[in-house]
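[Help] Beginner question about ligand-bound structures

Sorry if this is basic. My supervisor gave me a protein sequence and a SMILES string for zinc ion and asked me to "get the holo structure". I don't really know what that means in practice or what format the answer should be in. Inputs are pasted below exactly as I got them.
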Amino acid sequence: MRRVLRAAIAVLTLTGAGTVATGAPGHAALPGWGRPTVTTAAPQPGSPGLGDNYFPDYGNGGYDVEHYDVRLRYDPGADRLSGTTTILARATQDLSRFNLDFLLDVESVRVNGWAASTATEGAHELVVTPTRTITAGQQLTIVVRYAGVPSETLVNGYTGWTRTDDGALAVNEPESAWWWFPSNDHPLDKATYDISVSVPTGVEVISNGVQPRPPLAEAGNRTRWIWRTTSPTATYLAFLAIGQYDIVTDTAPNGQPVVNAYSTTLGELAPAARASIERTAEVVEWASGIFGEYPFEAQGGVAGPVDGITFALETQTRPVYGPGFWRRGANTSVVVHELAHQWFGDSVSVNGWRDIWLNEGFASYAEWLWSEEQGEGTAQELFDFTYASYPADSEFWQVPPGDPGPARIFDDAVYDRGAMALHQLRLAVGDDAFFAILPAWTAEHRYGNGTIAQFQALAERISGLDLTDLFTTWLFTAGRPDVSGSAARKASPPAEPKSWAKIREAHQLLAR
Ligand SMILES: [Zn+2]
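Answer (accepted):
No worries, everyone starts somewhere. Holo just means with the ligand present. The predicted complex, written as structure tokens, is below.
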């Protein structure tokens, strides 16, 4: 389903690429914190996009967001969402106007207290023209009041908001925020969040981070749920899960709060969901030993309802899992995958969506490392089996994970060949260097962004090797790379590792 939207957007951005490129010089080098632009000419409109290499109109130029205060009211019966989002931002240039990415009906926008005029443009742009011009470096408080029915708000026939029998899920990648809060919708502009939602009493609301206070009773038999995220968070990693949930709270070995939630619709799938997600704190502790200190303030997971999403997403501090992962019993592979993303994807985010391998290749390789740890097959055995499972003439080998194209950012190749590429790196540099590179990467780019080129440079610096050929072959060249001399070339096909079935199951639902 999402592939349709991405394909449509790719076409749109191709036709608009020239406009964006000439209208947004210099935005490729964002973010611009601490680097106020010197402007001598009249204030200009902020760019309608950040010039992303795959989705150039995603995000907006001219300002950086520090914080979103998203205060909502939701009625599951009508799928009606209304509320106010207050955005704290700073201008990075003199602005005559600027854009937000948003789809619901806007009642009013105020900028630093003054009413602003608004217009809609393109697929998801809200153009805000303030009464007073904005100067570079100025602090902005942007208050947007809005309402709408997100499940009926379509872009190219598609909504990223999932309405369910008992509520809704705002969980999607890369398009998710458009349907519930106005934003600068690109991982280059991270922010902290306060998210609160008023729902009829008896409905649960789960979101990112911690609960600074218990749910508050409100007039009209309603309850307001309050969540807070204090670490920088990309817009697509903020989420809502609204419906009937059993919530299980605990404390992790590192002292952090654990909040897990299970949809009551799961029925006979619930034990398998619990047997997987309740291992979250254990997996976080294990992963911290390999990837470096866990970057966030809370842990957890959400098992979504049977009529919700079909995939899983690494929503920050608390991934959301579709029900399909539990159909054949517990699956810790997907839990390991989504928790590894907390380092690779969430704390260190893509610089542009073309860098998706930095998310999916690493989260997939984490599953191989977990398999090794659990004694269910080594990474080498998984490499050999994965390599042999895709014949040389398979379409699979035609998608280079380092540049899969905007319609294929979640292709099998990004996951499986992506993990194979990391294994080849490990073989080339040796375990000592490989397990030094991973935490160095998460430390150097913590709460920021990274490119594949930067990762290669870091791997070369730590290993002392020129890795150009390896990266070119495994990430950027179509066709099945030769691995002559390795086990994969031996006469008999490699045995299936014990962990393979669960990893396969997870990837069949994750790769789309
Ligand atoms: Zn993933």
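A couple of things worth pointing out: Residues 2-23 form the longest helix (22 residues). Residues 401 and 413 are 6 Å apart (CA to CA). Feel free to follow up in the thread.
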